[in-house]
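Lecture notes, unit on protein representations.

Consider one protein chain, 1291 amino acids long.
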Amino acid sequence: MKNKKRGFRTKNNKLVLESPQSKIVFSLVVLALAVLIATSVSEIVSYNAVKLSPSDELQIDENSIEHEGYIVEFKEKPLAVISKELDSSIVASSYKKQRLNEQKNKITIERENFKNKLKTVSPKAKIRKEFNVVFNGVSISNDITNQQLEELKKDLNVKRISPNYKIKLFLNESVPLINADDVWKLDAQGNNCTQSGQECLTGKGVTIGIIDTGVDYNHPDLGGCFGEGCKVVGGWDFVNEDGDPFDDFFHGTHVAATAAGNGILKGVAPDASIVAYKVLNSQGIGTEDNIISAIDRSVDPNQDGDYSDHLGVISLSLGGGGNPDSPGSVAIDNAVGLDVVAVVSAGNSGPGERTIGSPGTARKAITVGAIDKNLSIAKFSSRGPVIWKHQELFQPIKRFSIIKPDIVAPGVNIYAASPNMEYKTLSGTSMSAPHVSGLAALIKQKNDNWSAEQIKSAIKNSAIILQEPEKVNIQGFGGIDAYKALFDYANPLIVSIDPIQQDSFVINITGKIIGDNFYNYKLFYVRNAPLGNISESEHLIISSNLIPSEGLLFANFKPFELAEGEYLIKLEVVDNFGNKFYDYGYFEVNKFDFVNISYFDVYNPKSPLDFRVKNIYNFEIEDFHAEYSFDGTQWRNYGVHTEIENLTVSIAQNSINLSGDLFIKINISENNISNLKYIQIYSDTSLKENWPIRLNFPLGIFGKPTSLGKIKPSVDDVTGDGKDEIVIFAKKADILTILIFNLEGNLISEIPVGGSSPLVELDFPLLVDIDKDGVKDIVVSINDTETGNSAIYAYNFDGNIIKGWPLEIDSLGGKRNLLLTAYDIDFDGKVELIARDKINDGEGEKIFIVNSSGYIENEIVLPENNLDSSFSKMIFYPSIGNFDNDTDFEIVVIDFPRNLSDSQIIKLNGIFIFIFNKNGSIVDNFPINLSGIPIQPPIIADFDKDGKMEIIIGLNYNPILTTNNSGGVYVINEDGEILPGWPALKGKRIKYYSIGDINEDGNLEVIAMDSNNIYILNSSGDIVSNRSYNGDSSLIPIYHFSTTSGNNLFFSSDILFDGSYLKGKVDNMNLNLSIINQKMTESSRFVDEKPLIIKDIDGDNYLEIISASSLDYDPINGKNKERASIYIWETNVSSSFINWGEYQHDPQHTGCYKCLICGNSLIEAGEQCDDGNLNNPDGCSSICQIQDYFECSGQPSICKAICTDSDGGDKPYRKGIVNIEAYRINVQDSCFNSTMVREYICDWDAIRNETIANSKVQSCNTWCTDGYCTSSPLGGPIPTKVPRNPASNIQ
């Protein structure tokens, strides 16, 4: 429920028409690890669709951002556009009304035709929302395949189909910083209003629409009431489809107060009115169709078809994927055409260029970046330019570009109102945009006859160029200045350059110059350079005293007569009063392309680097050479070989012996023009030889590369050779496939699982011995979001499906998602699968207990949840442990309260922790209730060394509440009691945590992190170490190990951004040692990666780090590399110190720290032995059971072979073929006279087939002379039985 107060209603609000509307309820799936609630102090609130933290040098990738269905744009113009066209012509009002009615009829017919087509093509797809004011189209649900979409695109009514992107947020010195407080003292003539008696410039009479999470209208800074006569005069909740747009997050309240607050703190336009449009839910998440609905409403607030009462300004501190042609951007442009000033935040994806998404990409929006109080660009602020592919009907695809952002404003440490009568300090371009929205309101109050584009012109051209050398695509026109914007211009000209076509030999430069006082315009081209230095290298194209005809500023400009590089087109227009107005366009000259190498590739210098340069237009090459540099200044050509004929470059292996950014410079001369082309990659000497490996995307049904899905590696020995393999589950076109790689990077097995819907969701493989043959098997689950059905498959390494599998689970009308944990919870020697189920729209959620034969032994039904709550959609892996002192283990599950809203869940109840027995009964004293929201599953361990297991869990507190009653780290015993000294860090926003004996004192510690700090807590809950991690507020599951050289932590994540790059790192808690600094510079931040794995995978007694990028991305060219990558790094850290090596602790996802973990040298309940390893066959199996023909004793277990069974007869032990030192040897262990012996036999038949048979024969003869076997003629082997040699390297 919302936190509503009695007495405030909206039915009489003239700005809100409560006409009957169909409520569209849809499911917004929120990934558990993507839900980060912003902190109360200096938190950057990001809009990125899967991850919420700022990245470096990575672009918006439209193909990887989450979306909720699609938005269809129709060909007919929307009503607002027709209305504007009619207003611009001389027509009678009766004709205008007639023409609008005709257009409505056309739109209706067009829409009905499409609906009929939709029913035929995709009966499951539903219409979500409809629009016709600033955007003509509909949004449709996600129940549609790619093939069906292609069919819909052929419909004659359809102009464009775009993803309905998920939209997220971009999170008392700032007002004086822009001189707004000076303006409040003045009237429209610039005189002191207290003396002149004229109205002061405070935004009075102007209404600002806040399109956000709603507004806490009860806050005193925002008027304390809602409706006519209040500051917040009205609004609408598009999330819940009602008339109460109350803020149940905090973001919209902060934005509204920054723009127009008037209380203890004053916003930029303190007397402006506010209309609140709630389009984002209690977690700051929504969809693009809600945004369009709000823009529609801002143009026609009372929905009467008369647009003259449109809002003056709309402020959007949000965004998602997309480009200037995306539905949200189109809606913004059409709203501006009706003189609604649209201010949009640029986003928090900086400092990489080309990181602005829709609706910040709208051509006519005022797109705002962020600066701090020192007028420096905030690192997180997204940059331009915006480059996208545009296609008109029946025309080829062309690339165009525009310059964004338009302006920058304060956005760092902004202190403003927050819900529940509080105030918060927040950072982000979300905070910058409302500064500009408030300024627009001040200008509109002073100049109510100015158009929206004139207001934009005044704000841009009065801006102060930053002293720091920043390019126009970073700072726009500079920092806003309220005084100059209001008083520098009496009637500003509208000056703009149209999007510039890229990749063309000849282009026409077009734009517009509108105004009554035009005098002259000049057009220049210039190398893209810092804004303050542009004039130093300008080249005049044209100067004219005539306004260009039909917008043609200059015809037949030839960019390819210039050297390769980035350029600006600068338009300078002078009016009759000497005022200058500017705009900029952007273009690139690309004559050459790199092939087989991409920007930010990760390069392993242990291998040669070979690539070539493509001569795109077949210029005659006069010279060609290459160099490389680590700093961009000192260039060298050691180990570099080039060939001018094919334009190839080769850098010999081991020529580069440093890790770091590697710049490669190519000098290509043609037509007496010297072209310098650069590419930046990353050299990493710590990569294991042959890694990373690249997985190219396969071609889909339309011949286009299709993603492999979310690459989440699992690591274990699945072949039984004593060596680990890397296993992934991927989509290969329409086939779900298990891929297995050895440590040399070779694909050694490919197992097709079955057909795939485009909507199928994949988890990482579970590696567990299902068939009890001593070798790990591969278990995968398929969660098909189209059909809702799920299935679990179990395979051997060779691709044979294990008897009894797959197990299919009917969705019963809903949509299931399964998360799997594996363990022998009843200790019958056979493993069980515990499948945590989340089902939407169906009968309820369950936990399935599945035996090793593929049968469901039990279904544990969780309480019904009828609420479409974002929190209720979060699911976590089950954890296992023993909490009732029997021999069986129990299942620990986090669940949310039922039938409650998100805000109730956070404020009142938090979560429940259930512990279930295998039979479905609940362990005594559970469930328990804790206040807070988890980000990861709980950890199970004997934390206090009492021989009993405890639950360790970290919780994130509610950002709306300022009390310390939620959040923190809890340790809970088997009686459901919180241990003394806990919870620790109460009131902190705990995100990720781990445990281990950090200081090697025999006691466990907890490592926990909030948004700013990493803490180590001792067993009593005391903080023993605390360090800041510089605000890298990414998704960071924590693993750690200790070493004799220091107490080290390993922080691993999907994406951990530090500076410019994604990386994992090992840091010393003494703050003085950096052991590992790995980078995955090419990974797209919008893909949900699997956390890193730390393990000794090659048996060298040192740890390796394994991770993957599901979508490699080229940020410079703005495109996918159409591949995924798997990385293995080597470290110098001993493998003996690992404590917590991967997500959920182990490849079976138990979440259990040394509680019945086979291989810890401790014989615990349910174990027959534990020899400290997981090797097979050595007598003690990988699940700590004594193997046949062995006996084991001691702790750690010592096992020896025995050769008699209960009947006293001899039994053969095993047979196999192994490869010793590349010699073909047959090995057979067997009983001989009640003694275990091993036979070693040269396999002459195999040797005959070898290409170097003679040397093999000689080698085998030599090897066999050492007493293990005898040499033999080529006629065949002579077996010799000898006592088993325990020192043999044959396993």
